[in-house]
Amino acid sequence: MRRFELGGGPLVLDGGLATELQARGHDLGDALWSARLLADEPEAVVAAHRAFFAAGADVATTASYQASFEGFAARGIDRREAAALLRRGVELAREATDGRPDRWVAASVGPYGAVLADGSEYRGRYGLTPRELHDFHRPRLEVLAEAGPDVLALETVPDLDEAEALIDAVTGLGLPAWLSFTIDGDRTRAGQPLADAFRLAAAAEEVIAVGVNCCSPDDATGAVALAREITGAPVVVYPNSGESWDATARDWTGTAVPLAERARRWRADGAGLIGGCCRVPPAGISALAAALR
Known about the structure:
Its EC number is 2.1.1.10. Zn(2+) binds at residues 214, 277-278. By secondary structure, this protein is of the alpha/beta class. The protein contains twelve helices and twelve strands. Helix 3 (42-55) runs parallel beside helix 12 (282-292), helix 5 packs across helix 7 and helix 8 packs parallel to helix 9 (194-202). The longest helix has 18 residues, at 79-96.
């Protein structure tokens, strides 16, 4: 396997995989979210990945954010089949690269709260110990690593307890990882100083980039500079479109912000991985990639 390394200019990440799948008419109103399509419509996942590659992305992030043994079990899927579906997420993203050496696969590992499907990933502090969180994450990390992605994307992490658990869980897997927090201002979603979160992540040998995702573009800009100052390493940044999720109305509100206008600033501040998260379609990634190149 090629070694995933940063350097020589930023890599462009994809955008919101679920956003693109929904735009193509797929119903993701399910606790498994986009992971449901790993079993039901795998060809749709490949097509969505290809759309982001065609838009200029260098990295495809797998449809495993909300996938777990526990989540699949709730749908009547046994452990063996669940492991096969986790591996399929990596295989589908790899298929979408069409064998090009300039395209990479990141295996998405969402937080424990994502599996609850109740918005807990934006609060953190689940009442579990770091050891309990480690024991939740490690089995699926092992399966994803065995499937051969280029990097593990430990994403939308809301607090330090879960960051500690994930860092411990990736130890010894033989793959690099990036770790990105979801934030509110200069704090994690659980209210801890973001500087403390970056220091914790920077101390891990396996973590090659630290940063933020699934947050506002404004918050992302401050976080990039802070992460670079604290870690001295490349920063990963992929915020939402700028719209906000209304949990009561179950709809997005507000106006999208063109991320391309901010991408050059993030690059100048030390970002080595730049993309979009929720509500960022291939067109947004195309504009972002053009701004960087």
